[in-house]
User: Which sequence fits this backbone?
């Protein structure tokens, strides 16, 4: 059985932003694109921050990155890197 994780960001009628997440293996897993949406930043900035986190040894890539199979809009399936909550928290701007 394929396991997936996603984050839903929406705005309520009273203009409050709400974020809904799904958990897998007791942590949240997001792609770089999802983190960019969450923090309202460019995906390139997220990528640069992640690279710095690994280069500086703050986190070990093998421990915080997992690839999930994702279906794109064109119907093709891709392996996409997802990052756990430790990386997400490290992205807080």
Assistant:
């Amino acid at each position: 059985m394929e396991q997936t994780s996603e984050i839903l960001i929406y705005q309520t009628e009273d203009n409050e932003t709400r974020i809904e997440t799904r958990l897998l293996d007791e942590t949240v897993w997001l792609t770089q694109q999802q983190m960019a949406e969450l923090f309202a930043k460019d995906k390139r900035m997220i990528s640069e921050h992640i690279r710095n986190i690994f280069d500086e040894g703050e986190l070990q890539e093998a421990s915080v990155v997992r690839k999930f199979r994702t279906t794109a809009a064109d119907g093709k399936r891709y392996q996409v890197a997802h990052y756990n909550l430790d990386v997400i928290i490290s992205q807080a701007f």
User: Anything to note?
Assistant: The mean pLDDT is 83. The two ends are 36 Å apart (CA to CA). The chain has four helices and six strands.
